[in-house]
Amino acid sequence: MLYPSKEGGESWFMGAEPTKDARFDPQSKITLNTDGSWKMKSNQARMSVFTSASLKAFQIPTYDRQVLAEQGYMESPSDWKNVEMTGYVKLNAFSDATDNFDWYARGGRHSDSVPCEGSSYKGALHYDGRVRWQKETWHVSYEQAPYRDAVSPLKGRWVGLKAILRNVEVEGAQAVRLELWVDDTADKVSWKKVYDMVDAGDWGGDASECDGLEDAMPITWGGPIAVFRWDNAKDVDFKWMSVREIQP
After folding, report:
1. C or N: which end of the chain has fewer Cβ atoms within 10 Å?
2. Single pTM value for the model
């Protein structure tokens, strides 16, 4: 844990039997490895983690960006907003070295049928060792931060990735600080910060598509779903996944 958990906040840790966890939806078959880790064989992985509230009654009354920014959440005050997402992965086989692992939050379902529900910040670790952040104002509308070199290529070894999203204040207004950390030795303690940036409403976006007054407004609200994602990797092992609400 790099940041302290919020007292009374939401948290989720992958348990010994994730296939029986109602708050976890891997969306594809996962199997247990002999070392206690789990395997996903899918070229399109989207492993969703729900808040306790989103399991009870999934209902989002409005996607109006001004309303969401004012109230601070999309569905419930317990939405994933200021979070530390952690996961360890082992890339065994892939078809595109430029693709990546993505940990993301601050939205709900990412579907063409509800485009304004699909807001997110995505922290990406690419299979070739590069990192960057992406801002998804709605599904699908992206702004890309520049790449940075972080670690050596990932194939055949365990690596840990943390994506941290937390609201901060910049010149009296709400902004979002985005951090990426990597544990390149996979020992659970040797974390190194590899990306640190702030979205203060001056980074891309077209929020007017979802009733935002400023196209580049930061995504300061929480969302009911956090997601561990990767593409074009047909064999990935994973373990020690968690999502925690942290003190901003």
Report:
1. N
2. 0.97
